[in-house]
Amino acid sequence: MPAATFAQAANERYFEDYELGGVYEFGAVTVSESEIIEFAQRFDPQPFHIDPQLAKRSIYGGIIASGWHSSSIMMRLLVDNFVSSVAGMGSPGVDQIRWPIPVRGGDELSIRITVTEMRRSKSKPDRGIMKNLTVLLNQNGEVVLEMQGTSFIACRTPAS
Length: 160
Prior knowledge:
By secondary structure, the chain is α+β, with helices and mostly antiparallel strands. It contains four helices and five strands; from the N terminus they run E-H-H-H-H-E-E-E-E. A hairpin with a 6-residue loop joins strand 3 (108-120) and strand 4 (127-137).
């Protein structure tokens, strides 16, 4: 399926502008080994994230990014390209997140979001509820992160 596009900029995008079944692709950003180590030193200081010598002897054979670092990169790409700056209302959470293969220094990451469900809220008809599958891909097209999430998005027009 070809990638979907938006007719509206993020600052004009409402619930009605997202397409059920739409596949949206954005990116890319390159992550360096020094960024991986810096993030991990602050937030996930496991040896295979912060120590090149110990990482070489690990099951990963070298420095890898924390899954939470990969998640942060995914979130930045999501906010910069997909989330509406005027109608985004946050998320009640994610149902699943997986990191099937590690991110390494030099990887170029892009994002693909597939809208899997859309409905208006019955209790709050000023907003819609969207579920999506978000994947972060490396330069080889391999999935390095997979997440199923839910978002609240304001509607352009109230329900009748």
